[in-house]
């Protein structure tokens, strides 16, 4: 059951990412459409930006004059001065005839901005709901598998309750539901305490992200119950490590980067919690290694280095799994560190690794990680001959990214005979099918 729950959790969060990406793209197109309704309606704003930041918005005097002329009314911009004489904020003034045009243009942009805020707000709410559901599944799973783990105080039932149950299993399910509800009614810290105490999980991987995930849950509560407006409850519970603490009454929003960071961190931490529980219950189940490796590789392809690296690190240390699973995870962990900009932390480990008694694919990976491209190239024919890798691997694996960039022509030449062979096989298969 745990593998199904993990798979569904990953699918839900990937679906959330896809939803945000699709709607974001749609909103971008709508913004372009709204701008094109009356491009010159934005002339006062464009001029203000050019005046306030001429390096970023560089317009010639001729372009500025054209904007003023085509807008068709007076435009004046007043700047506030900061200490030292630098420009601060600005106020845009337009003539009576141009006010309606400019206001209409701003309304169209503000409408799109409001839609995007709603998208990110609802996505954060959905994210935390998915996490709650996943935690619920973990607790249900644990107690259904270990009903004796329910404490004595949780077994107290009223006579009315007992009369309503058709069986002992119904009574146990009732008690479990009560446990789950009591946990989920609590705070983020209460969830973690329950997973540590009741499921006996270490949860060490949560420490790095505890404060940011707690703040995300608090922000979600503000969005649901207080329209995103900061209140004393939020300020009382916000971790000390959070900088730029907002004041009471301020409206909090959700940015694209904030949302993606939290999706990845929630996903990483709670997949690891489920994996730790799975490892405790079934230490030698090989499915755990293959599933986590696949998830880690999917994140590697999508350049989510931290998620991929963390899941790979867990598999590396899972002694109940096969050596090949742990070695594959190690290669993926090193890749995540390299592509994520932290290569120096693992360089020595890679250099000291000895794969001489292992399959050549591991030596191939080592050469690629250390940018020994000629050594890696020399192994490609043998790996293709033995079908250790195929042509799709050569042209798609993140591991070969630099090799493809640096030696594209040589790779094409090495792979050409194998591509021809594949074409012949496909033609033969096609002829057979035709007959």
Kindly describe this structure:
With 435 residues, the chain is mainly alpha-helical. The protein has a domain at 354-435. The protein is built from 19 helices and two strands. It has a two-stranded antiparallel sheet with strand order 1-2. Strand 1 (75-81) and strand 2 (87-94) form a beta hairpin. Helix 11 (286-301) runs parallel beside helix 13 (323-339) and helix 15 runs antiparallel to helix 16 (373-385). It starts with a helix and ends with a helix.
Compact description:
With 435 residues, this protein is mainly α. Helices cover 69% and strands 3% of the residues. The protein has a domain of 82 residues.
Q: Main traits of this protein?
A:
435 residues; mainly alpha; two-stranded antiparallel ribbon; 19 helices; flat
Question: What's the structural blueprint in terms of helices and strands?
Answer:
Layout: H1 2-37, H2 43-52, H3 61-71, E1 75-81, E2 87-94, H4 96-145, H5 159-164, H6 168-184, H7 188-197, H8 210-225, H9 232-237, H10 256-281, H11 286-301, H12 305-316, H13 323-339, H14 347-352, H15 360-369, H16 373-385, H17 391-396, H18 401-406, H19 408-434
Antiparallel strand pairs: 1-2
Helix pairs in contact: 1-4, 1-10, 4-6, 4-8, 4-10, 10-12, 11-12, 11-13, 12-13, 13-15, 15-16, 16-19
Characterize the largest beta sheet: strand count, sense, and whether it forms a barrel.
Answer: 2 strands, antiparallel
Are there runs of 5+ residues with pLDDT below 50, and where?
423-428, 431-435
- Secondary structure tally: strands: 2
Pattern of helices and strands: HHHEEHHHHHHHHHHHHHHHH
Name the average pLDDT.
Answer: 88
Structural class: mainly alpha
């Amino acid at each position: 059951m745990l593998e199904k729950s993990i798979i569904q959790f990953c699918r839900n969060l990937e679906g959330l990412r896809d939803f945000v990406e699709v709607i974001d793209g749609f909103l971008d197109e709508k913004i372009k459409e709204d701008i094109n309704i009356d491009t010159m309606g934005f002339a006062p704003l464009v001029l203000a930006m050019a005046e306030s930041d001429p390096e970023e918005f560089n317009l010639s005097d001729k372009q500025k004059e054209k904007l003023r002329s085509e807008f068709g009314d007076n435009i004046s911009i007043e700047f506030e001065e900061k200490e030292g004489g630098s420009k601060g904020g600005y106020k845009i003034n337009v003539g009576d005839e141009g006010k309606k045009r400019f206001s209409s243009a701003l309304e169209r942009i503000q409408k799109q901005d409001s839609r995007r805020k709603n998208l990110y707000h609802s996505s954060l709410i959905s994210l935390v709901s998915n996490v709650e559901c996943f935690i619920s599944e973990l607790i249900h799973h644990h107690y259904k598998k270990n009903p004796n783990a329910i404490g004595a105080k949780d077994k107290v039932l009223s006579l009315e309750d007992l009369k309503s149950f058709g069986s002992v299993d119904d009574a146990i399910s009732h008690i479990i539901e009560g446990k789950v509800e009591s946990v989920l009614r609590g705070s983020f810290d209460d969830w973690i305490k329950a997973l540590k105490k009741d499921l006996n999980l270490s949860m060490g991987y949560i420490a790095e992200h505890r404060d940011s995930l707690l703040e995300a849950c608090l922000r979600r509560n503000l969005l649901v119950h207080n329209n995103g407006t900061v209140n004393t409850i939020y300020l009382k519970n916000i971790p000390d490590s959070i900088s730029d603490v907002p004041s009471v009454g301020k409206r909090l929003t959700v940015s694209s980067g904030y949302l993606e960071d939290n999706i990845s961190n929630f996903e990483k931490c709670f997949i690891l919690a489920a994996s730790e529980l799975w490892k405790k219950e079934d230490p030698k189940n090989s499915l755990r290694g293959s599933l986590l490796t696949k998830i880690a590789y999917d994140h590697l392809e999508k350049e989510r280095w931290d998620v991929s690296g963390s899941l790979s690190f867990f598999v590396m240390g899972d002694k109940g799994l096969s050596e090949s699973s742990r070695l594959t995870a190690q290669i993926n962990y090193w890749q995540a560190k390299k592509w994520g900009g932290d290569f120096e932390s693992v360089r020595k480990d890679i250099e000291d690794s000895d794969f001489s008694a292992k399959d050549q694919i591991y030596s191939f990976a080592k050469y690629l990680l250390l940018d020994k491209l000629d050594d890696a190239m020399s192994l490609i024919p043998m790996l293709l001959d033995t079908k250790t890798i195929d042509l799709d691997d050569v042209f798609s694996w993140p591991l070969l990214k630099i090799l493809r960039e640096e030696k594209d022509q040589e790779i094409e030449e090495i792979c050409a005979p194998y591509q021809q062979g594949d074409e012949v096989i496909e033609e033969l298969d096609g002829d057979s099918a035709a007959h």
